[in-house]
Amino acid sequence: MNSLAHAPVAGLLARQYADAHDALQRAQASTPFMVGFPPVEAKRVTWDNWMRPPFNKWGFRHLGRLRPSISVPCGDATQALSEALQDLDAFTFASECGLSVRLDEHLLASHADGFIVLKSGQVVYERYFNGHTANDRHIMFSVTKSLIGTLAEQLIHEGTLDPERLAGDYVPEFAGGAYFDATVRQLLDMAVGISYTEQYDDPASESSQFGYACGFMPAPPEFAQYASLYQFLPSLRKCGEHGGLFHYVTATTEALAWVMERACGQACHERLAPIWTALGCQRDGYFMADPWGRGVAGAGFSATLRDMARFGLLLANRGQHQGQTLLSAEVIDAIAAGADPAIYAQDEEFAQWMPGASYRSQWYVFNDHSCAIVAGGIHGQYLFVDFEADVVIAKQSSLPEAVGIFDVDNVRALRALAAHLRD
Fold this sequence. Notes:
The chain contains 15 helices and 15 strands. It has helices at 7-26, 56-59, 103-109, 143-158, 167-170, 184-188, 206-214, 229-232, 250-264, 268-278, 305-316, 329-336, 341-345, 348-353, 407-422; strands at residues 69-72, 92-94, 100-102, 112-119, 122-128, 138-139, 285-288, 301-303, 320-321, 324-325, 357-360, 363-366, 372-377, 381-386, 391-397. Strands 5-4-15-14-13-12-11 form a seven-stranded antiparallel β-sheet, with helices on both faces.
């Protein structure tokens, strides 16, 4: 995550909030995209531009119209969420830039598309922006990792997946690559020694290679090497030893998903489907599919805002939903126990984004002032569960940059709001 340690960036953040205040007063309407037959070029969203502003404001909500996808069925009947609405627009939190910022201004400035807050299982606050609606599905990017980590912990609880076995025992195709001699636990906790950079604006970086292999973007001819993630993952090389470190790598989640597939004989979307159906979600979720039809487990899940909140509520209720056990309570406890914050703190950028956290089972875990877990994705996607406050918050956004100046404030706002509702 980008650093806010220097004054010019803090000043830019303050100016963004000032602009948001002005925009609230003007109540500006969003500009429509993809209108007409065909849409005019300036408003046309394609596979090439859907991740770039301003096209991402439409693209993030309609990825299923641009790329192949794999459905996670919602079942026959939506189970309503009860409501006890509060006016939280004027709630304020302390920004990284030194300002006391209103929630509504933060949401506008940070390019929120949807924001929902549940307290004790009831919706207390819900807002939509930029043409996004309660029935639209929105890509969650790396929040997807946390769904996969939860499913992996359930497989461990069931005895189907051994956290101490080597990934190569399940996937011999990893031979010669970074993942072959990493344990399942090391995959889960991002503790793999691997030569990989999450540099989104470098077309030659490993994260960009991942994007080409999974189908997020067309591959330039010089980088069109891998037809699928199944080809890309074995190509990654080891760097140093595994364990005792935190190295955030999207491909590591994909390697974990491949191990899970081999262990249980099902794809991740098949493992998620019974949960999604039982929760009474309002729409099918879906994974973007790579060119071989494999679900993108590290960053490819889309769902409505309320359905993401339903999944968060399941975690807050320790796997229980209307008398059914959809996830074992021991699974939730294993995630919420966290790991060693000192290991996570060694990565300065991540430690500034979520100070005091640790990383466990594809979740960021806070055990400082409360027990809370956070799933975060690029461009401002979040799922936040504070167990002590009994608060669940989901946020969907279309920030112009993958990582940037609002990342720290996004987490500050989530934690401050939960603390406010706990008191």
